[in-house]
Specification:
By secondary structure, this protein is mainly beta. The protein contains one helix and 21 strands.
């Protein structure tokens, strides 16, 4: 889970507003622009708190705080701290059945699931993360941003660094960006690392499993007029190492009734190449702002997705605004996703019933209210969102894992309702 602060800057001129939006669209890591006045602020504080809840599943509380030091030459130094407290339950990957079933997961814990209920396992975790970034102008048109991050939780740790360069050309109407990052992660499952596609109890003997993530980003933004800016951003991400979810299982199904008879631990490839292209647009009305973006994603696991995101910032006057939000997302299933493996059929090399790798659609409806309290410094934002996730559970003849010809499962993934509430505060001083 990651949170981005909703603290859109509110400069006096249209060009400044568009340039601030360009930073968001290109993800260049530049802090929020300060207002152009005689006493330029030296610090920028951004803080937020997130409440996230899935119906009958996971709940998250996430406070985030970032402090940025702004220097007179345009350089900046920022530090951010994030704390995630996660409780609730997560689907195991097993299929529902018409009778009571007992499921033992890879960590050795077992749970009893009632008839026609989606099998889930309870969990509790806490994640702490720290990020730091340094932006240094080189001349009048070039900027370099260096960043580093570290995070740790009960069974996962991550340590990484990145570098992003941006160059203004054509009288500062075009900005080019190029960046890259590297992260070395460790996965250390509670109870040990299970052997993939086994009935449980078999472990590899490796306590800490490495996972390396390398990403490359290139982007360009173009100010077309005093009101309109567009941007194009492309990213490649290469993952190598332990990519399996150690606590997920796959059901072994009776070939006649298709009811689960036993369970195997899941197994995924050790390599994944991911790509996405995002086209974005910001149009400044008088005085409102329309944000629109389209993102296309694909990877070598044959999972593809489309995302349409629309936001409209409506100024209410008296230093306040409303911003409705609409997002539609759809993805296809990974090539080794399956609702279950047929008993007696040859086992595939890879198989997972993790619904995050399945074919599903989601719709997000949200509303943000921002305001500056009269007589008090800073700006507040309050955002509420509802997300409905619809699973597609029919597998066509070309979908699913070889050896697992499961055609339909109307009870496999019920509608998932998700709600979020975020409060943010931004202050320049």
């Amino acid at each position: 889970m990651r949170v981005q602060l909703d603290s859109t800057p509110r400069p006096a001129f249209v060009r400044s507003r568009l340039r601030a939006a360009a930073c968001v669209l290109l993800a260049a890591g530049v802090p929020a622009a300060a207002r152009a006045d005689d006493a330029a602020p030296k610090y920028q504080l951004d803080a937020s708190g997130l409440l996230y809840g899935e119906q009958g599943r996971a709940n998250v509380v996430e406070p985030v705080a970032k402090l940025t030091r702004l220097f007179d030459n345009g350089a900046s130094l920022g530090g951010q701290f994030t704390l995630d407290v996660i409780t609730g339950a997560s689907p195991t990957g097993a299929r529902p059945t018409t009778s009571i079933q007992t499921i033992t997961n890879a960590s050795g814990t077992s749970s009893t699931v009632q008839a026609n209920q989606l099998p889930v396992t309870a969990f509790h975790d806490r994640r702490m993360a720290g990020d730091i970034d340094w932006t240094q102008p080189v001349g009048a048109l070039f900027n370099a941003t260096s960043s580093a991050h570290a995070s740790v939780e009960k069974d996962y740790s991550s340590l990484g660094a990145g570098e992003t360069f941006s160059l203004d050309t054509f009288h500062r109407l075009i900005t080019w960006s190029l960046g890259g990052s590297y992260s070395h992660d460790l996965v250390f499952p509670v109870g040990g690392t299970p052997v993939g596609l086994t009935a449980g109890g078999a472990f590899t003997g490796v306590a800490r499993n490495p996972k390396d993530v390398t990403s490359v980003m290139a982007g360009v933004s173009r100010i077309l007029s005093r009101q309109w800016m567009v941007a194009l951003n492309a990213t490649s991400i290469y993952e190598r190492g332990y990519l399996t979810e150690p606590y997920k299982v796959v059901s072994i199904l009776d070939p006649v009734s298709q009811n689960p008879t036993s369970f195997l631990t899941e197994n995924r490839p050790t390599r994944r190449s991911r790509y996405n292209i995002t086209a974005s647009s910001v149009y400044h009305l008088t005085p409102d702002v329309l944000y629109a973006s389209y993102r296309y994603y694909w990877d070598d696991w044959q999972l593809g997705s489309h995302t349409l995101d629309l936001r409209f910032r409506h100024e209410l006057g008296n230093d306040s605004f409303l911003q409705p939000h609409f997002r539609f997302y759809t993805q296809s299933a990974a090539k080794f996703f399956t609702l279950g493996l047929i008993q007696g059929a040859p086992l595939p090399d890879f198989a997972s019933s993790d619904q995050r790798l399945s074919h599903f659609n989601s719709v997000t409806l949200g509303l943000t209210y921002g305001f500056k309290p009269h007589g008090y410094p800073g700006e507040w934002t309050i955002r509420a969102e509802y997300i409905a996730q619809f699973q597609k559970v029919n597998l066509g003849p070309t979908e699913g894992t070889d050896g697992a010809p499961v055609q339909t499962a109307p009870d496999a993934f019920p509608l998932l309702n998700i709600g979020t509430l975020t409060a943010g505060y931004s202050l320049s001083f």
